Amino acid sequence: MSGGSYYVPATSKWPILGSLALGLMMVGTGMVLVHDRGTSLMVLGLLAVLAVMGLWFRDVVKESRQGLYDAQMDRSFRQGMGWFIFSEVMFFAAFFGALFYIRTFALPWLDGEGAKGVAALLWPEFTASWPLLEPPGDVAGPRDTFSPWQLPLVNTLILVASSITLTVAHEGLKEGHRDTTRKWLFATLLLAISFITIQGIEYYEAYVHYGITLEAGIYGATFFLLTGFHGAHVIIGATILAVMLVRVLRGHFSSDNHFGFEAACWYWHFVDVVWIGLFLFVYVF
């Protein structure tokens, strides 16, 4: 602390260790994708990344509990979380953009429409449609698609409900009602686990009964890229909520100092909004 106005964090080894762990994981992932080997390296890198994140967050929690952070650090955390969520928005925007490009431009071109309709010469018998059940060439498409009004609708209701329960928990914390926070945060975590479970059931149905796989043409690829990455974010979000619940049970946070909890809320609400977009453009339209 300098002059009581600016906190300078202590020297930390975690940034460089995190970079090395992430680099190790990426090298292993590249080897798996290109040479079909290197799984052990990829898993080792992933475990190293998780270990660094856990230990780094542990130190941040300790510093916060010791009262080392001031208003300037609070602004830094908020700005950092805001930019992180913005990067996540751009991440999903890329996949949604790919989906819209395929449906709006690529498929009509292959059917002879538009400025690049000459692409229809590749597969003269191709007819544009979505979902694409009969891809051109030798690719086998899915046998059928999901009804949006069954498992996808249930998961949508679950995530919307989880945003409501998390908001109640957050408001309880701001009002100093810790019992309310504990109960509703636990309910949110149960809803998150329910979503993940139903998503697993849906994937089983997709592979076994619907023929929707990563190899089932462009529909299968976009379906699993969008829902799979979202599912990974739900798992991460559920893990964060579980950590928040443990911290609440240990007496962490106060009504006016709980940005860790608030950041978890931001992340979870973002995950919910992304799912609504998935429900509409992957399942319904």
Automatic annotation (TrEMBL):
Name the InterPro entries on file: Cyt_c/ubiquinol_Oxase_su3 (IPR024791), Cyt_c_oxase_su3_dom (IPR033945), Cyt_c_oxidase-like_su3 (IPR000298), Cyt_c_oxidase_su3-like_sf (IPR035973), Cyt_c_oxidase_su3_a-hlx (IPR013833)
| Record flagged with keyword Glycoprotein | no
Keyword list (alphabetical) reads: Membrane, Translocase, Transmembrane, Transmembrane helix
Q: Where in the cell is it found?
A: Cell membrane; Membrane
Segments passing through the bilayer? 14-34, 41-61, 81-102, 185-204, 216-246, 266-284
Which Pfam family would be a valid example here? COX3
Q: How does it sit in the membrane?
A: Multi-pass membrane protein
Q: Which residues form a coiled coil?
A: none
EC number(s) on record?
A: 7.1.1.9
Grouped into one coarse class, the protein's main location is membrane
Provide the top EC class: translocase
Domain annotation Heme-copper oxidase subunit III family profile: ranges: 2-285
Q: Does the keyword Transmembrane apply?
A: yes
Which family does the UniProt entry place this protein in?
Answer: Belongs to the cytochrome c oxidase subunit 3 family.
- What this protein is called in its record is cytochrome-c oxidase
The species is Halomonas alkalicola
